Amino acid sequence: MTQPAIQSFDQRFARYSRKYLLQRHFHFIGQMGTVYSHSGRSTLYIMNHSSWWDGLVAYFAIQQEDSGVHYLMINHEQMSNLLPPQEKDSSQTLSTTLQSAIQLLHQGERVWLFPQGEIQHLDQRPLSFQTDVGHLLQKCPHTQVKPVTVQYLMGTKMKPEATLWFGEPFSLDWSTLSLEEITRYLQVRLEKQLDDHKARLLSHPVGSCSDFVPLLKNEGSRKKWFRFPF
């Protein structure tokens, strides 16, 4: 696919997501922190994975703030409702995906990864990471990591709320750490932010946490109730 074709698809999909898909399914999407990283270094975004919506919500936030290119590693099976049918992931496909991510990071790009590797319950503790994230950072030791957490809430509206927290980027000399040390360190960092994220929401009445800037807010009428025939 040529670059103009990619840009055209990106624009159309962004418009479809904003005007239809997310408007239809969410009452509110909010963001704390900033998507953009000012360091100019390659950046690996790591995000918890508890819903089919995670990648789309992240993509929406990117489109609202950052005009740069981001690469999201999303399982094709989870996107089968929106994308043309593709072959099921195999070990060879996974290896190719990791090699592509390594190449992008070496080029100074921004890559997104769900280190859990699959959808897991939002409140599962401890978080369970696959070792792919460790392989990436060992191969790209100058990469900075930016933690992103997402929480979903059913409140006083018929549609759910989603909030994203973009944490501060950090980096270590990844080349001096073992695969297990990197994986464990990132797991603890993301889990801590996820718990702090939940605590912020719990410290406010449902739907009133002003820490998160609205990216999408449906002002539906409170009078639109179901009418029962009695």
From TrEMBL:
<dbReference type="InterPro" id="IPR002123">
    <property type="entry name" value="Plipid/glycerol_acylTrfase"/>
</dbReference>
<dbReference type="Pfam" id="PF01553">
    <property type="entry name" value="Acyltransferase"/>
</dbReference>
<feature type="domain" description="Phospholipid/glycerol acyltransferase">
    <location>
        <begin position="43"/>
        <end position="153"/>
    </location>
</feature>
<dbReference type="GO" id="GO:0016746">
    <property type="term" value="F:acyltransferase activity"/>
</dbReference>
<keyword id="KW-0012">Acyltransferase</keyword>
<keyword id="KW-0808">Transferase</keyword>
<protein>
    <submittedName>
        <fullName>Acyltransferase-like protein</fullName>
    </submittedName>
</protein>
